[in-house]
TrEMBL record:
Residue stretches in coiled coil: none
Keyword Transmembrane helix listed: no
Organism: Penicillium argentinense
Keyword Signal in record: yes
UniProt keywords, alphabetically: Signal
CDD domains: Sialidase_non-viral
Signal peptide: 1-15
Name of the protein in question: Neuraminidase
Length: 293
């Protein structure tokens, strides 16, 4: 892994927390709709982060025509996802190959090594147009610009698609998870298949978060790459899961975020479209979990 470069966001967020209304339910808000000359799938792999002042940042795989080299756009919402504006473009200043795949944003809640508390990190794959090499690069911003969720019983939750049986044409990558008190020993934790009471079999590109909302143990919420619905468990991962509706369409590795405050009541669901999609765009939905749990 390479750890290279710093980038500075244009229009830094103010340090003081802003006075604003609380989140509200929103459905399929368009963050970015690419021009017609973008390459298929146009956009993919949307990711987001929330800053201490309440602002939400979003990024994604951006399939703009080359040259110039592809980059990771960063958009900001100052009203809990209702409206979005471009904040910056993260360019491949380290390798000059193009920031192409798997971006991820993370705001440091404490100092780690040389990175101070409050540093915003963006990791992603630097890959040339011919896909002949891969570098995982890390960029940092010091002016405001993973996902392990700690469960209330002191354990960690790890979700994955079971990638086996590649020689079959009908294999669908079912979702499994592991629970461990030590995130460095997930390999020795037993597999648990994600079984849904409705009979739905969620498959591929999972994402999982935990919210304190929903009961004594809070709620684990999982997304898959083939269903628009979400899957919840209020027993810290034990037993069957329940399927709930979501206004946000399914996407390849759709991301989830529990918005800060309000007891974890509001869930941001963020998608960038599907593999080989010809009309992909980047969208966001804010769900009031009171209406679903």
């Amino acid at each position: 892994m390479k750890v290279l470069g710093l980038f500075v966001f244009a229009g830094a967020a103010q340090a003081a927390a802003l006075s604003r209304a609380k989140p509200q339910s929103l459905s399929n808000i368009t963050i970015f709709s690419p021009p017609s000359d973008y390459n298929i799938p146009r956009t993919l792999y949307a990711r987001n982060e929330q800053l201490p002042n309440g602002d939400i940042l979003a990024t994604w795989e951006n399939y703009s025509p080359e040259p110039p080299l592809v980059y990771f756009p960063v958009y900001r919402s100052k009203d809990y996802g209702k409206t979005w504006k471009e904040l910056s473009k993260v360019q491949d200043t380290a390798n000059h190959l193009g920031l192409r795949y798997q971006p991820f944003l993370y705001y440091l809640p404490e100092r780690i090594g040389a990175f101070k508390k409050g540093t915003l990190l963006l990791a992603g794959s630097s890959i040339p147009t011919d896909l002949s090499s891969t570098n995982i690069d890390l960029y940092a911003s010091h002016d405001d610009g993973a996902t392990w969720k700690f469960l209330p019983n002191g354990k960690y939750f790890y979700i994955f698609e079971y990638g086996s049986f590649f020689n079959t044409s009908s294999y669908s990558f079912p979702l499994y998870y592991r629970i461990s008190s030590d995130p460095e020993n997930f390999a020795s934790a037993p597999d648990n298949k994600l079984i849904v009471s409705s009979g739905t079999k969620p498959t591929s590109s999972p994402y999982v978060v935990w919210t304190p909302y929903g009961g004594k143990h809070g709620t684990i919420i999982a997304s898959s790459g083939t269903q628009s619905t979400l899957f919840i468990n209020k027993a810290l991962g034990e037993g069957e899961w329940t399927e709930i509706e979501s206004p946000e369409a399914h996407s390849y590795t759709r991301s989830l975020r529990v918005l800060e405050g309000n007891g974890g009541r509001y869930l941001l669901v963020n998608g960038g479209g599907v593999l080989q999609g010809t009309s992909n765009s980047v969208t966001a939905t804010v769900m009031d979990l009171k209406d679903y749990l």
